[in-house]
Protein 1
Amino acid sequence: MRILPILLGMTLAAGAAPVSIDELMRFQGAGQPAISPDGSRVAYVTGGAVWTADVAGGQSRKLHDGASPAWSPDGARIALLLKGQLWIVPLEGQAARLTTGEQKADRFQWSPDGKKIAFLTPAPSLKKPGAPTVVDVNDLPRNQIMVVDAATRAVTSATSPEYSALGYEQWFPDGFSWSPDSRRIAFTWRPHAKAGSHHQGDLAVVNADGTRLEVLARRPGYDGNPRWSPDGRQLAFISTGRYDWVRISNLLTLDLASRQVRNLSREFDESVKEFHWTLDGSRLYFVAGQGVSTQVFVADARQGAVRQVSQGQDVIGELSITPDGKRCAFIRQNAAEPPEVYVSELGEWKPRLLTRVAMEQTKNWPALETEIVRWKSFDGMEIEGVMHKPAGYERGRRYPLLVVPHGGPHGVQTNVFPLGNTRWFGERGWVVFRPNFRGSGNYGERFLRANLYGWGLGDYQDIMTGVDHLIALGLVDRERLAISGSSYGGYMTSWVISQTSRFKAAVAGCGITDLPSFLRTTDVPDRFEDYLGVDDRLYPRHSPMTYATNIRTPTLIWHGDLDERVPLMQSRHLYTQLLKNKVSTEFVIYHGEAHGARRADVRRDLIEREWRWITSLVK
């Protein structure tokens, strides 16, 4: 096994007292960087407000409350979202609200001439007040693209409510793009915006005044997130190439005259999501995962070759580049350094720190030494994970272990700055282990598909062989093991405790426990059929409930009552069986919460509740 320490840039305090729950919940980093067209300033968001920073001197000033800043093409104004409405804020002058409360704005973009802004808004519901819901008929969500005049504030429709412009974004990003002459808008046409509708996404173009809709191509799988080339002759877009949930996305271009499609990332074995043209149309920059890191890449628009620009084990995201492709702003973080805004020249990658928002908040937090761990699983497959040693780690001493399996299963544990339960447990004497078992993202399509028809089999062995390696290294006390995961991590937690009694405590959040009933009630059944097949006679083999009579691990279970992805009854199945087993258990239902823990009050309660539960059982 190889262990790669991540120590570079560690600025956190050694020997400091653990952070309080209030400190942890107050943490706010910097995000949503947007570099000005001339590259001299960067707008970013922190604390519910948009700030601007001077690239040369680094000085920051608050511009206005809001989020999602976007520079006007002339660099004199910034558009932003505040409470669902569009505002324009001049760098010098009075802010002006563009839209009214009747239309909630979402994603938006300036027209290249700076005269208009296109934005996304929910289309009116087809269901009349008081009428019954007819499932998948009058309850299907749809979005429209609207256009607001920046001078007169007049709003017009660019797309019709009879279909959806764009849609649900969990698995792949989706956006729209103005043509260089500001006359047309390219977008993703979908029949509706329901989860899973991206598989029916096709490229379309419409005049900005709502006339002449044209669907450019009807192809299998997802085609979406189009971006017009600077010369107006091509659209770049991302595509899965077929109707398949377990698939990476490629970067393609469509010649608007010949309708010829070219795959620029055919040999690049990872998903391309957000991307940016350079002004001369020769290159497209994008960010993609590479194991526990995310890196900046550039694709040659003519030759199709992809080259890596950034290096190291950083997690880079939210890339914003100048139109000339010379400079960029982005968020950079790693396990030792919290997320901040950085800038770099793209010709020579040298990230330069621009903000110190998160660093000021965390400068007195305890240091958690973090290492990237690799080991061989039961069948020889190499698996990677992130391990955080406890604050004040002493070589030769064995510590209790918290295993945190990720969701998805296509999710991935990356080298991010530790927060949440990772920091809470790590600061209080625990080793925290975040494994990337087979089926995780960021390791290529073959690895992504390595758990097809095999949930609970190879991925379970990947986790357990990783635990055994940490024990063999002398880091972990084999008698003090706990596991905590949510979503697919909740499934893995439930599966693990149904297969072994080695863990003294478990926390299972919004997890799948009974596959036959789950496939009949989830909002995206076809997604899980792509993983498990359509023969439901095979589902019990992979269901924790099939083996739940074996469970002896005390388990805290939690779930949101509005969860449509993994319905609440999945957790009740497990809770009921644990009661029959006479195993200590607690079942917590968070009202008004959907899939996961999104609200701050829920996240706070979970950290404290999880800590009490696990430490009462693991001494």
Protein 2
Amino acid sequence: MVKKLKLLVYLISLAATVVYIGYRLAFTMPFNLYAIDIIFGLIVIIVELIEALEFGVYFWHVLRPEKVSPKAPKIKDEDYPDVDVFVATYNEDEDLLAKTLEACSKMKYPSKKKVHIYLCDDGHRDSLKKLAKKYGAEHIVRDNNNFAKAGNYNHALKVTNSPYIAIFDADMRPTPDFLIKTVPFFHDDEKVGFVQAPQSFNNPDIFQARLSKQTPFEQDYFYHYIQIARNKTNSVIMCGTNCVLSRTALKKAGGFAQATIAEDVATGMLIERKGFRGIAIDDVIAHGESVNSVPAFLKQRSRWGRGCIQTAKAYGIFRFRGLKLSQRLDYFVAINYWCFGLKRMLYMILPLLFAFIGIIAIQGDLVVFSIIFFTQYLLKRFVIDWLERGYKSSTWSKIYEIIQAPYMAVVIFGELIGISSKKFSVTPKGNNNKKRGGDLRLTIAHLLLFGANIAGIVVAAIRVQDTGINLYLIPIIWMAINTAYLLFALLFDFRRSRQYKNFKPNAVKHYGIKSYLGLLKRGS
């Protein structure tokens, strides 16, 4: 009964979205106004059409299916194959690497002789050879650093030969049962290309550290729900660490993708394109180190975003042979997600343009528009979150996106118009990750937007005296909502990243009232 009720609500939400888009196209486009109004009107409707498509894919591929994580089959001890374990490093400190190598050496396996650990060192440090030997690993270096991590791994593939490869970032420490929970998926199934486990961290992520520790890890919903749902469409995203790959699948895909700085996403897509399956599991079997400083966080996210846009450009999601339509749609949504900065900035600027200079991107009857818009908006924003039992929060997602928006909008716009960066910037970890400061540029951007929205509300309120409330009601509400979200952004800016005592990874799994109370009292 509950399942049928949820499906009914999801269908109503989808229908309300279709009605809204139809109404927008038929009755609210500013084609009778000035050219500048028409331009912004077209931009907004294009964004809304893409959002509607994304919601349709989200409904069909994520909300609708049962999200049950597959479990590894039980196999005989003698059937466990040889596995190469690659740990990639460039400039991470040795203490961090030592912990990762030690964790790799402690992974359980029926025959430890079949586990071959390699420290893939692109920093060309002689001292790491001794460190690798201490933990029973081999030290691999190459003559150059071409193609960053992808090139590093491709070189390692040439000098190793096990049929399966487990890959870990320098900070990601596997639990003892990592291989036991991943390798059996490949047994008697030659079509399994890779198995991806979630990322988790031993310290608070940047949002828990600066806003509220009573929230789940920011990426939890992606790893434990979206990824699991993607098993149905074979569009699981490979995430570059905590992953086991088939050497055969990698070879068919041409190795690790080198045409983008997001080699992981592209490699997974190339493997799935060749007819192999990607499998996502929700067992947390590796823990890493989350970045502490805002500049480091922005560097990391800009690399992910740029890399995804580069992947779309290099391989062309909709002209790429070998992918099914469902896979193309899933990858389009995943890559288009990184345009969130542009979208959020557009939605913050639009009411300001109307308040200050009268640009009208949307026109129509106030009452009719309000009923149609808020029906679909509230269903998608709150009812679905409630039905998802707090694992997802549209409000917190919007907070996260608005915080990053000014920076990511510039980065992604540059990538879209061809100002591309092929440089792979390593995310600071270990001793390089001790700084906990903010980013002045981001803070200034938030302050300017906050001030502009306050000023916009004042200007609109003054003009109401002459024109009446109808024309300015929605812009005033819109700017007020933006102002509230920007308050969260400023709170993020002016707080210092905090490392909580006795922090337990993955202890908080739901968003709720405690998430907001955590903003007021961060604890210790």
Protein 3
Amino acid sequence: MRRNCAAFLLGLFLWLMFVSTAWTQNGYTWQLGAQMPEGRQELATGALNGKMYVLGGYEPGANSTATVQVYNPTTDTWTFAHDLPYPVNHNAAAVAGGKLYSFGAGAGETFVYDPNSDSWSGRASSHYVHSFTAAVGVIDDKIYVAGGTGTPSQRELEVYDPVANTWTIKAPMSVHRNHTAGGVIDGKFYVVGGRIMDSTNALEMYDPQTNTWFTRAPMPTPRSGIAAAVVNNELWVFGGEDVPELALHAEVEVYNPVSNSWRQEPDMTLARHGIWASVIGNKIYIPGGGAGASAISPTRTNQIFTPTQGTHLGNISTRAFVQTEDNVMIGGFIVQGTTPKRVIIRAIGPELSQYGVPNPLADPTLELHDGNGALIASNDNWQTTIIGGIITHDQVQDIQNSGHVPGDPSESAIIANLPAGSYTAIVRGVSSTTGVALVEVYDLSPDVDSILGNISTRSFVQTGDNVMIGGFIVQGTTPKNVIIRAIGPELSQYGVPNPLADPTLELHDGNGALIASNDNWQTTIIGGIITQDQVQDIQNSGRAPGDPSESAIIANLPPGNYTAIVRGVNNTTGVALVEAYDLH
């Protein structure tokens, strides 16, 4: 039976190679804007009316300052606004309701800036000072401030309501921290990094609806004195320092809340700590900062980062019911570009139960095959590396450091540096056990000339909770035109037994909302993001399904997370393929 399985897998590999030829350039840029008039570190910033305001901080000579420097990105020039009421350092700032607020210093005073009169006025003081750089976020024009010194435990969270001019104490974090940073994604407040004595990599998420904190995947690099910004519903963390090690950091690490995972982006041009970040348009601005670890060494630099200029598909994840023999789960992906791509591939089972998924696969195994069908790596239980093929040394520490460590010892993972080509990950249950599993591929290297692309997963589609669910992410700053397909009948020509006779397709956004659907690609279902007949566009795409019963959707998708669900008409079952292709 394994020989028959290998035969149709090879056919599928060749087919994937044939249909997967598109390539998108993954780009990003660091640049240096006009220098600040005066060097600063341990500062705060806020973006107001298209300009960045730099509030206080240490100036050269280790003196606190009350000056406010203002950067105009359009003209690449600096001016000064009215000074703060008194000199500050390690302070905080936020923009809410179209106004700029300063806090986190002195005795907890809060000030609001009026750009029309170029003046500051006092508001209600916070219960605690939240100095030495607290984490800040804004939800529904209310300011959330967490951690910092001048609080009972450096875990405290307060919320400022500018309309009522009141501060309210909320549930504290689980981790004590100052020199931290935060951001808001989909109405949730994320706090990352910081220190008491040693730096931390802890990430926590606060849900204001329930007044509850949740622990999330830790940041790969422990550090404090960082800057954070939210772009494309992801938390970007920059620079910082590790005080005990006297280490200055330039790393840029990005957290995706949907996959609860981190990836690395290109380092800052210049390593800095004691920094703050502001977002204007599609750019992140990081002014000044200290140039020496554990030292007051303010700089005038103005580092500007444009995240992922090119838009591409990334981070593949498919959930399905894994059976045996011909009905295991097979995930296909393409590495496109000129340099090898470092990825982690995971087979997840037991930890699905915590998300309410019934009948998870108790002990998933993982195989990685190249475009010729050759087995190049395998794993059963991520804490035990299987040496062989492209795996030449123990991977446990690398997996732990990746930010994508599986949540259960029975789950499997492989880290691989893959040259351009087609690859397939196969998930089975140990001793032919069955159950629901997740196969995932995450990008660990943001190389400009190498990307993950063209996603394809094959599995046995059942009913109810055991349909096939394929997830993908559109990464970048502009919409991406893609075609998503649900393939069944044409699999028979590649030797796949029991293909799904009539697959239907749904496309959901990151909030779970249904945004498009199809049953039989030659009949367009108008609704959601589909506003016109798509049959001609599908034919012109070069990706038209080979059977009229198969389904397809063309969509111009903004950056974000998406899920494609494949079912059989009238609860029929069978083997199907869910795919997402970049149409440029």
Protein 4
Amino acid sequence: MRRNSLYFAGGIGSTLAIAAVIEITGGLPSQLAHLYYIPVVISALMLPAKLRLTVALLASVAVSPLPDLLHGPLGLNTYYDDPAPWNLSSGGWIVRPVAFFAVSTVASAIIKERAAKAEAEAGAKLLGERLIQERTAKHITMATSKHRGKELNLLSRIDKMILGGATETEALREIARLTAAFTGSPVAGIVVPDEHGKLLQMFYGHSEASERLAEERLPIGEGVSGWAIMHGTVATSPNVFNDARYMKMAEFARRAGYTSAAAAPIVLDDEVLGALFVGRADEHNFTSDELATLQRIADQTAIAVASARQRHSLEELAHETAIALSDAIESRDPYTGDHCSRLAEYATLTATALGLAAKDVQSIRLGAALHDIGKITVPDHVLKKPDKLTPDEYAIIKQHCYSGGQICKRVPFLHVAYPIVYHHHERFDGRGYPDGLKGDRIPLGARIVTVVDAYDAMTSDRPYRKALPLAEAETILRDGTGTQWDPEIVDTFLSAMDTAAKREPTLSRLEHSLL
């Protein structure tokens, strides 16, 4: 409550201060009204409905003809000759209040949705942690043998992987590898239906030939794995070559080197996600203890998958929020439409090609989407100017890095984007802004965004020129390596773009997929 009061006081105070500056300097609301977006947006992000709408209402009053009611009696110049609300010309005023309330409503709706989902995800996480604790306690009481001790060690390693933030694919591969090592089976894996539900995709862990085999597509419904998925129960086969459930999969079993097999369903919230599968080289009748162990590992796998999906959902929500805010800003300039979306894709492509961890790739993706959020403070006559900027106008433009950084610092889930938003106009030779950082002192994410931002600017139409040919843009990037851009980032980005173009030969630019 106290924090809301402070933010509300700050929003009201900022709005009144901007109004005072306009009065003192004799400026017109139509020229300086963009400054009111600062308290309006921050209030929308930080305050409840009544308080944020109050700030938006005060900003709307400040840009309306209402102040002219005092200007007349005081002998001051009036701001508006025609206060009619339907006047939508350059001298009109109604567009600004509508924009203030729209920004306030849209931003708060996004934050409400994020908070609701975050609360739901937190509840699910607590439930998962409780399930982990319950299962761990149960397994401890059962640990009366060396085999059970090894099982507990395996489950503990899966727990650590869950808490470590593994992606769903990483979790499946690692659990498959751990299961193969634990059981000593020639092959072990996790089988999941593909996106169309027509094939089975298997992630292997192999204890003899290699750490991980290539992923293969298998007929759905075949084998013990398909049976476990379709019926939601444990399935076994002492000899797969004498089992009617093995047709096309019999050849696969022969190549993989197993004769007997068992599978346990991976179930989460009554939905069968896949099956945990093991195969042995000889004929074997699996014991009840072996099948119970396999099912416990499958249960732990379900928790790992749920955790990975929840984490991915939160990451996507943060990215969608960033894109929505960026779109609201880009709408002021039709020449930059989809610019932030393209940069997010370019930056993700480059970060992935550099081999960065999934968590770092997501942070860079978010920073790329938000890199120009500070332009909310740049006046329209400067932002949309078709001619060359004056030194004073250029100084105003340069302030957007600082303004964007401050917005990121004020919102907790945007903290990871701060180094990128604040430093994305640094140069590799140290002649950039705002801090003049040089070389590796510039955050890696900012170095990536600097390169892809320049590429997109060169290959997009702008008010003062048409888009450059791709070959010319590539030449400019290579000529600027070591001075304006990081050579490694430029090489990685262009190589990744070339690889993407070869995969989609009909596309001349990666961003065509966004259209």
